[in-house]
Amino acid sequence: MTYRDTLVICKECGKNFFFTVEMQHRLADQGREVTVPDICDACKGRTQYGGKLHGIIKWFSPEKGFGFLAQDGGGEIFVHRTGVPLTEQGTLPPLEEGQEVLYEVLDTPKGPQAVQVRPFQP
Ligand SMILES: [Zn+2]
Question: What is the Å distance from ligand 1's center to 15 Cα?
Answer without folding.
Answer: 6
